[in-house]
Amino acid sequence: MKRIAIYPGTFDPITNGHLDLIKRSAKLFDHVVVGIAASASKKPLLSLEERVDLAQRITDDIDNVTIKGFSGLLVDFAKAEKADVLIRGLRAVADFEYEFQLAGMNRHLHPEMETIFLTPAQEYTFISSSLVKDVASHGGNVSEFLHPVVDAAVAAKLKDR
């Protein structure tokens, strides 16, 4: 049986921490779908199309990873992709409570699907897309937290504002 996992998120922008989890997940599962949520309510810096494009560009060397945008319920997206596992990243204890609630709701909505939690490599434990955007919007250097392609895209987007 082919094990398909979904790694969902807004990925606004996709960070080196996200990339670390994608690479590690690709070693654990036959196929990983990075599901990029439209999340219009979060008012993303990058459009869904830009986020999908950037994720594709930085993961194109990982054969068993596919990038797809989605809107609506995550469990519906997972069912459409025939995934039976959700991958969620936990950076700190503060993430756990929220992620635990999400896992419970997802289990209620789709009992056959499991959620697994991965912790990032130590150098990425404090990185979040929100923090990276905030630092970058104030002129801070975030290049060590982003793939060069993503760093350039974020800089160009902030310059246009």
UniProtKB/TrEMBL annotation:
This protein's record includes keyword Nucleotidyltransferase: yes
Protein name, as recorded: Phosphopantetheine adenylyltransferase
Ranges for domain Cytidyltransferase-like: 6-133
Gene of this entry: coaD
SUBUNIT field: Homohexamer.
Cofactors that this protein relies on: Mg(2+)
Subcellular location: Cytoplasm
Keyword annotations: ATP-binding, Coenzyme A biosynthesis, Cytoplasm, Magnesium, Nucleotide-binding, Nucleotidyltransferase, Transferase
Family of the protein in this entry: Belongs to the bacterial CoaD family.
